[in-house]
């Protein structure tokens, strides 16, 4: 894990394997991986660097520092992906700087579309052959990029395909930013039905636990939200960072002074069940995680999004809805209920419609705002919990 506040050794609490008749789960050993395997690093890219670092890097190559501003304008503002388009730089200078600061980081190896072409999942290959995925979703009033922060995930949540894949490595800041830039190019060039457009929202809900790759994710958030030409100029309020509940990292995020939204993947209101569904709960319990979330809300002024995957006969009981409502009422919060998306080999499934409706009703009775998430991308395994690109060739 990149965050220095997080443990570096793996823990081995119990996790869930399958649903028992009474709505509980059977325990099998689970492994939490906090430290990503050591691998070769991606080449340095403009998006890895702050504005000052870009100028220093250009100067170190023997060029005038203002060339860094020109490169930034081409990459972040004009969304150029071909150095030949950068005609305000002399050809020799352009080729040299592009080779050093704009290396090709990601290669698309597969694209899948659904929803009439307005949902597009891309499988990317990195320099070392590692594969991961991002999803672009266009709606009438916005366009959202769901980005990955790791190849795989070490949190081992048993109902999530990404968690079951294990962790291959952390992504670099630039590898994260390039997913957004690629989506922005796709929209700007009119490749998505609806005509040319722009990315308006970013959610760190793709592959990986974002706060387990803290330094790179924060760097990516800053590149995404820095005003152009330093960055892509997307509002911090349009960025959501998700977590399964790494308390020290949530506290560190609060201290950053950002206004990004925090999304907490809770999935159970009681420790007994959450220990099984979200193994990190064996380290930081529901009360500790919620306290950290409320502190973040107080510091940022943003309401926390509670992510809750509804699983038939596991966590969708009316009494659990009441317990969740009591825990959340009075706080700056919104609940996002997610009908469980199918994953290969899973015996679990989404809640019955009547149980979903009753869960919503009971939360609302406690005065807790709640919505049921649109399950976009399910047909192409691009919905929540379904991203599971093979992480090697």
Automatic annotation (TrEMBL):
GO terms for molecular function: 4 iron, 4 sulfur cluster binding; metal ion binding; rRNA (adenine(2503)-C2-)-methyltransferase activity; rRNA binding; tRNA (adenine(37)-C2)-methyltransferase activity; tRNA binding. Its cofactor is [4Fe-4S] cluster. [4Fe-4S] cluster binds at residues 153, 157, 160. It holds the Pfam family RlmN_N. It is an enzyme of class 2 (transferase). Binds 1 [4Fe-4S] cluster. The cluster is coordinated with 3 cysteines and an exchangeable S-adenosyl-L-methionine. InterPro entries: Aldolase_TIM (IPR013785), Elp3/MiaA/NifB-like_rSAM (IPR006638), Methyltransferase_A (IPR040072), RlmN_N (IPR048641), RNA_MTrfase_RlmN (IPR027492), rRNA_lsu_MTrfase_RlmN/Cfr (IPR004383), rSAM (IPR007197), rSAM_sf (IPR058240). Reaction proceeds by a ping-pong mechanism involving intermediate methylation of a conserved cysteine residue. This is Probable dual-specificity RNA methyltransferase RlmN.
């Amino acid at each position: 894990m990149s965050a220095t506040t997080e443990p570096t050794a793996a823990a081995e609490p119990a996790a869930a394997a399958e649903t028992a008749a009474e709505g509980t789960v059977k325990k099998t050993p689970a492994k939490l991986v906090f430290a990503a395997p050591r691998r070769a690093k991606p080449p340095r890219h403009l998006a890895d660097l702050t504005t000052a670092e870009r100028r220093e890097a250009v100067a170190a190559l023997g060029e005038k520092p203002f060339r860094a501003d020109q490169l930034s304008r081409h990459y972040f503002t004009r969304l150029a992906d071909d150095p030949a388009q950068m005609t305000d730089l002399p050809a020799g200078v352009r080729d040299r700087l592009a080779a050093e600061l704009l290396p090709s980081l990601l290669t698309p190896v597969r694209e899948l579309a659904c929803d009439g072409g307005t949902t597009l999942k891309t499988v990317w290959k990195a320099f070392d052959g590692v594969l991961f995925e991002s999803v672009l979703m266009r709606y009438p009033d916005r366009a959202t990029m769901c980005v990955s922060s790791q190849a795989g995930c070490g949190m081992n949540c048993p109902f999530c395909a990404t968690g079951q894949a294990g962790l291959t490595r952390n992504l670099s800041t630039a590898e994260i930013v390039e997913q957004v830039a690629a989506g922005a190019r796709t929209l700007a060039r009119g490749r998505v039905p609806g005509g040319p457009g722009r990315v308006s929202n970013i959610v760190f809900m793709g592959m990986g636990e974002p706060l387990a790759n803290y330094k790179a994710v924060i760097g990516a958030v800053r590149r995404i939200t820095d005003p152009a030409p330093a960055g892509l100029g997307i509002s911090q309020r349009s960025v959501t960072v998700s977590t399964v509940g790494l308390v020290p990292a949530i506290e560190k995020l609060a201290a950053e002074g950002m206004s990004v939204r925090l999304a907490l993947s809770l999935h159970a209101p009681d420790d007994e069940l959450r220990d099984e569904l979200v193994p990190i709960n064996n380290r930081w319990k529901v009360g500790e995680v919620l306290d950290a979330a409320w502190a973040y809300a107080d510091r940022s002024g943003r309401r926390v999004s509670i992510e809750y995957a509804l699983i038939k006969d596991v966590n969708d009981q009316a009494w659990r809805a009441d317990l969740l409502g009591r825990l959340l009422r009075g706080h700056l919060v919104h609940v996002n209920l997610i009908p469980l998306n199918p994953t290969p080999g899973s015996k679990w499934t989404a809640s019955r419609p009547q149980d979903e409706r009753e869960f919503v009703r009971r939360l609302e009775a406690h005065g807790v705002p709640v919505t049921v998430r649109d399950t976009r991308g399910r047909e192409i395994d691009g919905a929540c919990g379904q991203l599971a690109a093979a992480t090697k060739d």
